[in-house]
Amino acid sequence: MIDETDKLILFELLQDCRQPLSKIAKTVKLSQQRVHYRIKKLEEQGVIKKYTININYPKLGYSRHSLYLDLLSVDGKEVDKYLKHITDINEVSCCYMLHDVSEWKMYISVWTKNIERYDEIQTKIISKFHKHIKNYISFQSIRSHTYFVARMLNRKKEAKCDIKGNPENFELKDIDWKIINKLRKKSNIPILELANSLKVDVNTIKRRIDFLLKENIIERFYTILDLKKLDLREYTFISRINPSHNHEIEKFIEYAKKDYHFGIIIKAVGYVNLYYAFYAKDNAELKSITAKVDKMLGKAVLHTYKIEVEDMIS
Q1: Do 169 and 294 meet the contact criterion of CB atoms below 8 Å apart?
Q2: Neighbour-count burial of 72, counting CB atoms closer than 10 A to its CB (0-12 exposed, 13-18 middle, 19+ buried)
Q3: For residue 23, is pLDDT > 80?
Q4: Closest by CA position to 279, among listed 211, 229, 227, 240
Q5: Could you report the per-residue pLDDT of 45-81, keeping only the tens digit for each?
Q6: What is the DSSP string of the chain?
Q7: Which one of 5, 64, 160, 297 is at 20 to 30 Å from 277 when CA atoms are compared?
């Protein structure tokens, strides 16, 4: 069973999973030993699935493209084979399998510096699934606000918000990219282990990580959680809104930034121009949230796709 103290610990890990145990212990009013024990238990139970980082790709000149696929029936082994090809693409930041009730069955997030490179990646992905694709949609993000599930775990403390906007052109050294790629896979890796794996001295690793944090290239170190084990479901809605109703879109975004149920809000351009994800404990809460959204956006909505996340692949 996950209790309220576990949720407070998970909240802290979502804010910064590399912060000292002593700091988390002080915050949740437990000993370091008890905090360590609880974290290990949460890992063993599969509540904590992975330690990773959130990268500020726009600062490095990248734009986010979201690709949704609707697939005909395909067996698990074949999907796994295709997914290996997708997740090996450097520009793919994450890939989700979506619930059968969703109109779309797979979501892939891709970051590229130009539209030509994105077209190459989209073509490569669609070609892999060409026998099984019924339909697909793609759109590009303009601005996003990300909280993850943190606000559902602790409503008394302000949750960190990662904001991504217009692309810049900040250049990184090769060693920085090597560190980032290692931290994406395991952000709680000890500094010594990271230094040894890259054949670099510890002080250099510390300096480069401090630099990446100072320049807001790494927005946060955080944990990926199994929401089902927290008795939560994640719902994503992607909507095509009449552009002449921009006031309603901005009003909704401000509302979602204040409502603890929402984990990410994206203003986009393309066939879809609004993306938002929220968490609900049950159908009653789901209906309550969707009713508020419908009331706010109203007739401005031309089409909306409801998506329920089944599992994160990478």
Answers
A1: no
A2: exposed
A3: yes
A4: 227
A5: 999 999 999 999 999 999 999 999 998 876 666 666 7
A6: ---HHHHHHHHHHHH-TTS-HHHHHHHHT--HHHHHHHHHHHHHTTSEEEEEEEE-GGGGT-EEEEEEEEE----HHHHHHHHHHHHTSTTEEEEEEE-TTSS--EEEEEEESSHHHHHHHHHHHHHHTTTTEEEEEEEEEEEEEE-TTHHHH-SSSPPP-EEE-S-------HHHHHHHHHHHH-TT--HHHHHHHHT--HHHHHHHHHHHHHTTSEEEEEEEE-GGGGT-EEEEEEEEE-GGGHHHHHHHHHHHHH-TTEEEEEEEEES--EEEEEEESSHHHHHHHHHHHHHHHGGGEEEEEEEEEEEE--
A7: 5
